[in-house]
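Narrative summary of target 7.
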Amino acid sequence: MDPLHSPLLTDLYQLTMLHTYYRQRMEATAVFEFFVRKLPEHRNFMMAAGLEQALDFLEQARFGPEELEWIARSGLFTPEFPKHLEQWRFSGDVHAMPEGTIFFPDEPILRVTASMPQAQLIESRLMNLVHFESLVATKAARSVLVARGKKLVDFGLRRAHGAEAGLLAARAAYLAGYDSTATVLAGSRFGIPVVGTMAHSFVQAHDDEAQAFIDFARAFPRGTIFLVDTYDTEAGVRKVVKLAPQLEREGITVRGIRLDSGDLGQLARAARGLLDEAGLRKAVVFASGNLDEYRMRELLEAGAPIDGFGVGTSLVTSADAPFLDAVYKLQEYAGRPRRKRSTAKATWPGRKQVFRVSDRAGIFERDIVTVEGDEQAGEPLLMPVMREGRRLGSPEPLDHIRERARGGLERLPRRLADLETASEPYCVDISPALRRLAEEVDRATAGPLESVS
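Modeled conformation, tokenized:
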């Protein structure tokens, strides 16, 4: 079995609770919701991602012979526990915000309705997938807002926190609006356009920098972007310019140059001048090297003539906001709404829906979180995506998700599109019906009420 689909890819307490649920026959229907309590610093919105991988996990998770053997010999559980797990399958329902949807705190972006043993066990892996991709998609979306149509490429695999993180970061960045990735497997698996040039080692392996450019251009004659900063950046650009006529006679077009170090703004101006002077006005200037949305904004606001950016470490690690205050909480069990009341961590009970209200221009105005069935003005955001353990449709094409993400970013209030924390956060209203339900649950469970407004 693929270890990424193993039910043992979880926290131990999921298994200890599962064991106890079986012993106590607590197998009634449970409703859990995944949401974010608050936004990280300098985030004014989040973008949902990871649903496809979550559904894939739910469909494929099984306890195979190796998993059952480990449980049996662990000494942690009763001998009959593995028997319960032999037939374990997820057969519940899932509602979710479609990937690429903009969301805000207190809004469930995924809801699971299943028997308690099923809904509980899947918590850790679902959070792991949706949390990570949403984190990276949001980071990527910020670059998209700053770049204003410039090409964006994911360069992050080598600095990602593991192979799966690098692969899924490429997917999350692409759905958020990046144009391509350097990660080859992401192209093979997800159909993301794959791009790449050369490394400094390729140039260093040659005794002559110009010969390195010629060899690479002849190997990839449809158009090459040359890495010019191995030794002296401006000298490297001059060599490209000098080689261009020879390459043109061979049917090879110089597509552009890549800058990876130094004062990118100053070097981009110098490179653009040399290229234009040589008549290579269509050749692009591409920049990489420790970039993030803040550095991109600085370069573009200074007028740097850069046509595209490669972003790596900061993207795949979401360096300035590497985690979300995301949770997966029980909201209903055995037909009764449930509510956590812990200090600073209280939750709203029951099954919920989120409605989004927009102004006449289509700009997001406010969201309303309410109990399921309480119809409100606006567009409902949670949709059924799985019933009785089976998807309700084929996986959504990434290009469709990209369009949704693009539309969402275009409809953001201008103050939320900024990189700094907005002076006025987006309005998320808790409906009167949901507040009444919370009061009813509190009366039923007694004790002082903590506000979660």
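The radius of gyration is 26 Å.
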